[in-house]
Specification:
heterodimer; A: alpha/beta; Rossmann fold; 2 domains; globular; B: 372 residues; alpha+beta; 4-stranded antiparallel beta sheet; 13 helices; binds iron/sulfur cluster
Chain lengths: 254, 372
């Protein structure tokens, strides 16, 4: 019997699931190797659990999501959080820095009907996560690598080191050293394929903090490059603002 | 050694001859304001009159005042990339396995190595190639891919007629004068406002090529200019590695400075990525969805990555400070015992390309001065 794959969505933009649809040719190959048991963005057919692999997109930001996530965990052999929302809280994690009630009033005409948690948090804060795929959105190459590795029974080859090493391997000239412009690459996980630096733009940190990242040292360097406190704070408060090391550093520049 | 003089047109002819002999010529070219190493065919593609202004954590390519009315082609020095990028590339397929008709077939890597000519190799980088030769091609277990690429290589070296602020090759005994390990050696001369190159052959292949170029014998003033420029480059070098660096490190393995370094260091691995002698790698399998093919790849690694010190059961070097200590003590202390020389040539790349400007010469100095 083919292993069963299920895709789940919490608070998110659907971009990561779209990455899966974006696999195109490989999606057909994938469908040959696994039973796509639940992928509501692609098909209305839903097969019952348990599932061999659950890919979970989105942050947990509403009360019922906590319970739903627990049930998914119970029915999944391997659970992988995919994307910046599921691994770090994502863009909606920005509200965690604010008092949420006034925000609700600004955004919704009838804020009293919005049932929301005060914070948007990563999946790993609520259930045990077996693996995380980072990125906003995730890289389709990494999605394929993850599934191929699980099918072959080997460790997925997903880097945890810095974006800088992708720059150097690709021969991309360093933006910070050669132009004095800000870049989150030294504290950001590699894996995006060197997207921003290779077109001459500083890394926005969408893959979240690299292993053993040292944002304090980078924050200090950005100050030496004459960035204002507020600007440094905004640099660390982007797609993965609520990820521990970035969060702490942005708070240091409040 | 025979020394001859060629002009800029002669240099172009040298490139043409190399191309005719089916070498892919790789040399310094400007990309996004940085000197990188890339294929080139024309002298006009070289970074004429551009000089690298380097400091810890900073690099700018700037136009220089002409030298005696001439825009020299080789006054930049070393950019972030080194020749290691081509000889020991950041990613290499080693072998692959295929499952077909119930059988497993193993295919070794393609034996074909490109025939390449490196143009503009500096003394420090020749020393680095010699170091990697010992590491990767020495002993009983030579790296076949490295050896194949190395054996098909033609090297046109260049003497440095000025140094960057980050250079310290002189104190490492690696430069600025090129002594060995080249096929041809150029020294760029501008005396009297005439742009020309003193050329020396270091191999039969080099001598044969040199003979095909329009040249003349050097005048005494030209040999004198070579000596003078190299002396000035050596004497003008602003940085140096303090003498006895290895024993300073050996005596200070538990120094509080390592912890302070851990607070400054980003563990980003830029230093090991730009270093021309670093060789560490990790292996990884790539398999497709259909499970019929597996590839075994080698990727560049860094001792600043956690997985570098992973052995059965866990990671040994948890703190950034201990990773920095691994880097510095390997370069300057343990390398000596392993391979007979330090693993540093004084090229200064790791100083300029460290985003927070950590300078290894300064760190050694501090470790030596501050009482443990
Ligand atoms: S451009 Fe950014 S990611 Fe790339 S090496 Fe420089 S600091 Fe690192
Ligand atoms: S340690 Fe630094 S200065 Fe020494 S060879 Fe490596 S990059 Fe160059
Ligand atoms: S251990 Fe570190 S310093 Fe030594 S060769 Fe490897 S990467 Fe370079
Ligand atoms: S010494 Fe500099 S370049 Fe090397 S890992 Fe630390 S911060 Fe990065």
């Amino acid at each position: 019997m083919k292993p069963k794959l299920a895709i789940w969505k919490f608070s998110s933009c659907d971009g990561c699931q779209l990455g899966l649809l974006d696999l195109e040719e490989e999606l057909l190959q994938l469908a040959e190797r696994v039973e796509i048991a639940r992928f509501v963005e692609a098909s209305r057919r839903v097969l019952p659990g348990p599932y061999d692999l659950s890919l979970v997109e989105g942050a947990v930001s509403a009360p019922e999501e906590v319970e739903q996530l627990r049930r998914i965990r119970e029915r999944s052999r391997v659970l992988v959080a995919i994307g910046a929302c599921a691994t770090a809280g994502g863009i909606q994690g920005l509200r965690n820095f604010l008092d949420f009630d006034p925000v609700k009033v600004q955004v919704y005409p009838r804020p009293e009907i919005v049932r929301s948690l005060a914070t948007a948090t990563p999946v790993s804060e609520h259930v045990t996560v077996d693996f995380e795929l980072h990125g906003c959105p995730v890289e389709k190459g990494q999605l394929l690598e993850l599934v191929s590795a699980l099918l072959a029974g080997r460790r997925p080859e997903i880097p945890a080191y810095s974006q800088c090493q992708e720059c150097k391997a690709a021969g991309t000239p360093c933006i910070m050293v050669s132009r004095g412009e800000p870049c989150l690459g030294p504290v950001t996980r590699a894996g995006c394929g060197n997207r921003c630096p290779s077109v001459g733009r500083g890394c926005y940190g969408c893959f979240g903090p690299s292993e053993d990242a040292n944002p304090a040292a980078l924050g200090g360097r950005l100050a030496e490059l004459r960035l204002e406190e507020a600007t440094i704070r905004r640099w660390f408060r982007l797609f993965t603002a609520w990820a521990g090391p970035f969060r702490e550093e942005s708070l240091r520049h409040e | 050694m025979e020394q001859l003089v060629i002009d800029v047109e002669g240099l172009q002819q040298l490139l043409d001859r190399l191309v005719q002999q089916v070498y892919e010529v790789i040399g310094p070219r400007v990309r996004h304001g940085v000197v990188t190493l890339a294929p080139l065919r024309s002298v006009s593609e070289l970074p004429a009159g551009l000089v690298e202004v380097q400091a810890p954590g900073s690099y700018r390519l700037e136009p220089m005042e002409t030298r005696e009315g001439v825009r020299p082609l080789f006054v930049h020095r070393v950019g972030p990339e080194s020749w290691r990028h081509f000889l020991h590339p950041p990613a290499e397929l080693l072998w692959c396995a295929e499952r077909k008709d119930g059988h497993l077939r193993i295919h070794p890597r393609a034996a074909e190595a490109p025939r390449r000519a490196f143009l503009g190799v500096r003394a420090c980088d020749l020393a680095a190639i010699a170091i990697q030769d010992r590491v990767l091609a020495g002993g009983a277990h030579a790296d076949a891919g490295y050896l194949a690429r190395r054996n098909r290589l033609f090297i046109v070296a260049v003497n440095c007629t000025s140094a960057a602020d980050t250079c310290f090759c002189h104190s490492m005994g690696c430069g600025p004068e090129v002594k060995e390990g080249f096929d041809l050696l150029l020294t760029e001369l501008t005396g009297g406002g005439e742009h020309r190159f003193l050329v020396e052959a270091g191999s039969d292949a080099g001598a044969n090529l040199l003979r095909m170029l329009p040249s003349r014998l050097p005048e005494r003033g030209e040999l004198e200019e070579r000596r003078r420029r190299l002396r000035q480059t050596a004497e003008g070098m602003k940085r140096s590695l303090p003498p006895g660096a290895a024993s300073v490190l050996a005596r200070n393995l538990e120094h509080p400075r390592w912890q302070a370094l851990g607070e400054r260091c980003l563990a980003c691995g830029n230093c090991t990525s730009v270093c021309p002698t670093c060789f560490c790698s990790r292996m990884a399998e790539k398999t497709g969805l259909d499970g019929t093919r597996a590839e075994h790849w080698r990727y560049q690694d860094s001792c600043f990555n956690a997985a570098h010190s992973y052995i059965h059961g866990g990671v040994l070097r948890h703190e950034r400070g201990s990773r920095y200590r691994q880097w510095l003590t390997h370069k300057l202390l343990h390398w000596q015992a392993q391979f007979g020389t330090p693993g540093c040539t004084g090229c200064g790349r790791c100083i300029a390309w460290c985003p927070v400007g950590i300078d290894l010469t300064e760190e050694v100095r501090m470790l030596g001065e501050v009482a443990a």
